[in-house]
Amino acid sequence: MVASGADERSRLQLEERIQALIRDVLQVEVPTRETDLIATGLLDSLGLVSLITEIELDLDFELPLDEFDVDSFRNVEQIAGYVAGFLSTSDEARSAT
Amino acid sequence: MSRVRSLAREDLPAVASLYELVFRSRTSDPPPGLASYFERLFFDHPFVDPELPALVYDEPGEGIVGFIASYPRPFVYRERSLRMGGTGQFVTHPNVRSRGVGALLLRSYLAGAQDFTITDGRPPHIVRAMWERLGGVVNPVASIEWRRVLVASKFLRAAHWRGWGGARGQRAWTALNRIVGRSVRPVPPTGTYSEPLTVDVLLEGVSLLREVFPLRPNYDARSLKWLFRELDAVAPARGPLLRQVVRSPEGRILGWYLVLVPRGQVANTLQLVGKGDDVGLVLDQLFHEVAERGAIAIRGGTTPYLYPYLQGRRCVLDATSSWALVHTRDPALLGTILSGRGLITRLDSERWVSAHRLDAAALAKLDTAGTNIDA
Questions:
Q1: Structural Rg of chain A based on CA atoms
Q2: B221-273: per-residue pLDDT in tens?
Q3: How far apart are CA A67 and CA A65, in angstroms?
Q4: H or E element that contains B4
Q5: Are the Cβ atoms of B100 and A65 closer than 8 angstroms?
Q6: Do B1 and A69 touch (CB under 8 A)?
Q7: How much is the ipTM here?
Q8: Single pTM value for the model
Q9: B130 contacts in A (CB within 8 Å)?
Q10: Which has the closest alpha carbon to B83: B107, B54, B47, B44?
Q11: CB atoms within 10 A of CB B371
């Protein structure tokens, strides 16, 4: 339960961080964490490139291209989940070496 | 799963259809020869590099909705072999412009196996911005196009000035050319001569300039022969390829050029090379010969080594019509390119490609000519 609570807080913090990056980089205020950024036109090609670059710089990692799926970047919640999953995998790999 | 993957031959009809829609007739019905032309550009030539393929975005349920071309070239940098990726046609279907298709294609291409990537066409602002977000930079001098009017009256008439048509207009244009034309018509050069540029002389010339250009193309005879043949094949649409080496009276190589010269139109310089003050002599020879062959003007890409010699030769510099962009992870290499010590010309970028200029008849002729690399 404690681990789950910590994970939940960590996920919420990541979502806030993503939302702040979108605000800073794209100059848009996302209405909710479930708002579809692509369908609503808030995120175009330039915005997507900018956001990916900023996330990578902010969190100091590189998103793998082979597995990248644009559907993972539709809303703040999905982006945070995708990034969290990758960060978790990277941490495990580092711990194993 | 990523929807970006390498271009396969069976994708070519869909790519041709997408390119026709966005860049040519605005319909999805390309002429029969366009897919074949793309096949020779992306698969059947000696420069092809399986690690630097063109890419497509394949959307489940919709098919190919995006494409980015790849024109690989081998280069050498301080005697180390490098690979250049030249991007060219970069197309996304209008219906998917909001879905980040272009961003993902470009990001994938720039992350490829090449040591550096260039483009020098007319990308819209958003494409230039994407390049810069992904770590690319504008090559400012190379983004400038130079132009030299050769026959003033014909050039002005071709520029569609109103009210100057008909017999009265013809007399006016002729009078104008007598007044203005003499001053813009290139003066025949003295002390130099030119002769046809062969593959062997071009290879020799590039080798002689290794101190001037630490970064330069690593051509071989087979590849150059293929490239010359391809350019000769599009002569009906783009004008004959004039390739000349310029020599001193003693026979020393001063430089060379390759230029497409459509009679009565604007000639298009693909490569002009020289060393130091020899560049001016090569330019003078070029202007004279192209004018003799009936071009009304000539244009080309500016480089730092060329820039000083365009001054005082009645050239106009246009900084509004194209962008030259570079991407590399090597700061020293980037410095060499931006300082002009990289021999990167339109002969090795997307500029020699004719996909947007060939009509159905021209494509059909190319199709029947075949793709035998070693013909």
A1: 14
A2: 999 999 999 999 888 888 999 999 999 999 999 999 999 999 999 999 999 99
A3: 6
A4: strand B4-6
A5: no
A6: yes
A7: 0.75
A8: 0.87
A9: 45-46, 49
A10: B47
A11: 17
